[in-house]
Design a protein that fits this description.
Elements lengths: L4 E5 L4 E7 L2 E6 L4 E5 L2 E8 L10 H7 L7 E8 L4 H14 L4 E10 L1 H8 L2 E5 L3 E4 L10 H23 L7 H8 L4 E3 L1 H6 L5 E4 L2 E4 H31 L1
Parallel strand pairs: 5-6, 6-7, 7-8, 7-9, 8-11
Antiparallel strand pairs: 1-2, 2-5, 3-4, 9-10, 11-12
Helix pairs in contact: 2-3
């Protein structure tokens, strides 16, 4: 039995499990219509570097596998990337236990495997200065010539399919961009670009969570306002010089 709050840690990541009590949300007060949100658990993982050298992710994933089909997963990502194998383990647990019930927050940066993990979520939330970077994988092999060739070809085929399914099939990069990425092109994206591409679904701004579309409208409006203010300031400055 899990207590109301529980913490499990690996070297690089920390899992917090919290029981969320049943809630009643008003739909129509006059007609006494309410939505009942049953008691469930929130699994929140703070994601660091994908580079577990000692015990691996056993305790974290064992905790996640206790989830029921009412529970949901939150990923708080601030990661420079790391081992693809560990990222694939997160992909597997999402598919197994949190399918369509995963929220990711890009808390500062998500590079390489951190970017892929962010893209795995159903709802993807960024902040004003969040930062994301896609690039290709790195891997190697040791052994006899034929073994190395076979291993490299197999791994390349598998990883390219994994990356393609997460990034291209969801429309986050085009096929042409992906081809360039595989041969070495890096793609750096700020909050505006993440919203334009649909990678981010929501933005937290000034204490409020808004949709990516709302954020783009806000910054467009802000840009127009700033342009008018700059033009007005320039005009006043020129008038002052004439006087």
């Amino acid at each position: 039995m899990i207590d109301s709050k529980k913490e499990l840690s690996s070297e690089q990541h920390t899992l917090y499990i919290e029981v969320v009590p049943e809630k009643k949300r008003v739909i129509d007060k006059d007609k006494s219509i309410y939505e009942i949100i049953p008691k469930h658990k929130r699994y929140r993982v703070y994601i660091g570097k994908f580079f577990e050298l000692k015990k691996g992710l056993h305790s974290v994933f064992n905790g996640l596998r206790e989830a029921s089909n009412r529970d949901y997963l939150e990923l708080m990502i601030n990661s420079g990337g790391g081992l693809v194998n560990e990222g694939q383990q997160f992909y597997n647990i999402i598919q197994e236990k949190f399918y369509r019930r995963t929220i990711a927050y890009l808390d500062n940066k998500g590079y390489s495997m951190g970017a892929l993990l962010f893209c795995m979520a159903d709802k993807r939330v960024v902040y004003e200065y969040s930062d994301l970077m896609f690039h290709t994988y790195s891997h190697g092999s040791r052994g006899k010539g034929g073994e190395v060739k076979s291993h490299v070809e197999h791994t390349s085929k598998k990883l390219e399919k994994f990356f393609y399914n997460i990034i291209v099939r969801r429309g986050f990069l085009t096929k042409e961009e992906f081809k360039k990425m595989v041969i070495g092109q890096d793609y750096w994206m700020d909050t505006k670009e993440l919203c334009k591409r649909g990678i981010a679904t929501h933005v937290i701004l000034e204490g409020e969570e808004i949709t990516a579309k709302e954020y783009l409208k806000k910054i467009k409006k802000k840009k127009k306002t700033q342009k008018k203010e700059d033009e007005s300031t320039l005009k006043d400055s020129e008038t002052s010089k004439k006087d």
